[in-house]
Amino acid sequence: MSLPPTSSNYVQDVFHPVLILLLVRRPLAVPLINRQSTFRGAHQLNRDAFPEGFKFNFDAYRFSISWSRIFPNGTGSINWEGVDYYDRLIDYLILQGITPYANLYHYDLPLALHKEYLGWLSPKIVDAFANYADFCFERYGDRVKNWFTFNEPRVVSALGYDNGLHAPGRCTNCKFGGNSTTEPYIVTHNLILSHAAAVKRYREKYQGFVFGTAASAYQVEGMALKGGRGPSIWDAFEDIDIMKKFNFDAYRFSISWSRIFPTAVKRYREKYQVDQKGKIGILLDFVWYEAYTHSANDEAAAQRARDFHIGWFLHPLTYGYYPKSIQEIVKDRLPKFTADQVKMVKGSYDYVGVNQYTSYYMKDNGVTNPKPVSYQDDWHVEFKFDRDGVPIGPRAHSGWLYIVPWGMYKAVTYVKVNYGDPVIILAENGNVTLPEGLRDTKRINYYRSYITELKRRSMMVRR
After folding, report:
1. CB of 19 within 8 A of CB of 119?
2. Which terms are listed as keywords in the entry (predicted)?
3. N or C end of the chain: which has fewer CB within 10 A?
4. 129-138, 160-169, 258-267: which range is least confident on average?
5. In three state form, how does the secondary structure of 334-390 look?
C-alpha cells in the first residue's frame, strides 16, 4: 500500500498540515515504519538517483493530489505554489509520453477540517470535497483524462475510526475519542456521498464530448500563463535544422491562439472546457476471502467478509444500497441514503480500481455479541491463515501479506460477476523487498504468478 502524496518542496513552499501527521507523531502507532522516511515521494526518484540513460518504460503513472496542498484549510484560499507543482508534474508526464492517472484523496484530510467539524464524521465535508475535486477537474482536466476520487476509502473508515491505528486514531476507548460501533459507518457514508458528488460535478461540468484535442487544450492552457507568451514544450524545436534529422520533408504546426489573444483561455474555460471527455472511478482495496471449509456457515462467513470489505462501497455505488448482510447486522447503526442520494450514488463510476495483494481464509466464529462492539466484530468471522497447518500461501516480507496468486483470479472474477462486469484497473499489487535484495527472486515470482492469474482471467473473458 503506497504512502500519501508529497513532493520535493512540500515543506519549503509552505507546509500545510494534514490529519495523517497525528499518526506519525504517535510513537507506537507505526512501529513498522521508518518515521524518517514516512513521507518520501516521487520527488526523490529524480534524475540523479539512476544511471545516465536509465528508463522505466512506463506508459502510465498514478499519483495522488494532496487536498491541503491545494486548499491549506480544506476550503477557501488557494496555495498556488502547490497548484503549480501538479501543473509541472502533469505537463512533464505528457511530454515524456506517460498518461497521468490522478487520484484526489489518499488518507490526507486537511487538518483544519478535522478541527472544524471532525472531518469525515460530518456531512459538511461532502460539499468541501466536491469543491476541491471541481477545482482539480477545471485546472488539470484538459490534460488528465483518468481520475480516481479516493484510494482505499475503507482503510480510512476501518483503521481510522474502528481500531484507531490510522489517523485520526478514533475508536471506542481510544485516546482521541470515538465509537467503533457507529463512526466507521458514518464515515463510509460520507465518503460514498463525497465520491458521488465529485463524480456528479465531473459528469455535468467537464466530462462531455471532446472539443479539439488534448494537445490543443494543453497549448491553450499553457501559452497564456505568462502574458500570452509562456514557455512551450515545443520551444525546443525553434532551431529548424533539427527537423532535418527526422528526415521530414514537410511539417504541420499549430498557431497558439492564446499567444495572439491571451483571452482565449477565458473563452475556452467558459464555453468548451465542459468537453474534457475523461473518465472517473474509485480505488478499492480487496483481500480475497476464501471459505475455511465447505460448510454452509463458513461459506456464509466468507461472503459476509466480502460484503463488509469491498461490498461496503461497491454495492451502493453499483446498486444504490448497502449489501443485505450489512443491513441485517448493523441495522439502525447504518446510515440510509435518501431517494435523491440513491440517484447520485448509483452508477457513479466509469471504472473500478482494485488494489489486490493477498487472501485469507474465513471461518464462521459461531458467536454473535448481543451488544455491538465494532465494525470488525460485525463481520462475525474468524480469520484463518492455514488449513491443517498448511499456510494459505508463502509468507511475504510484510507480516500481513501471504502470496496467494489464485486469490487475484478470484477477486477480479468476483467483481466482474457481481457488479455488472465493470472495467477494472488493477491499481495496486506488490510485495516489499529487502533493502539489500538485488536478486529478489521472491518478489519476481510474486509478480509473475499474480500476473499469470490476471492474464488467465482476461483470456477467459475473451472467449
Report:
1. yes
2. Hydrolase
3. C
4. 258-267
5. CCCCCHHHHHHHCCCCCEEEEECCCEEEEEECCCCCCCCCCCCHHHCEEEECEECCE
At 273, list the grid cell: 472546457
152 is known as an active-site residue = yes
Averaged pLDDT for residues 84-93: 95
Whether the Cβ atoms of residue 199 and residue 191 lie closer than 8 Å to each other: no
State whether residue 395 is helix, strand or coil.
strand
Percentage of the chain modeled with pLDDT above 70? 73
CB 352 within 8 A of CB 423: yes
pLDDT tens digits for range 260-297: 555 544 554 455 445 788 999 999 999 999 999 999 99
Distance CA 287, CA 161 (A): 20
Catalytic residue among 382, 428, 436, 453: 428
Note whether 85 and 78 are within 8 A (CB): no
> Apex CA 62: angle with CA 85 and CA 224, to 5°?
35
CATH 3.10.129.10 correct for 1-44+59-211+272-284: no
How confident is the model at residue 460, as a pLDDT?
Answer: 65
Using an 8 Å Cβ cutoff, are 103 and 151 in contact?
Answer: yes
What are the residue ranges of CATH 3.20.20.80 in the chain? 1-44+59-211+272-284, 286-463
CA atoms within 13 A on the CB side of 34: 4
End-to-end CA distance of the chain: 33
Q: What CATH number does the domain located at 286-463 have?
A: 3.20.20.80
Give the amino acid at 101: Y
In the prediction, which pLDDT does 443 show?
Answer: 85
What is residue 17's predicted lDDT score, i.e. its pLDDT? 72
- The active-site residue out of 81, 138, 152, 382 is 152
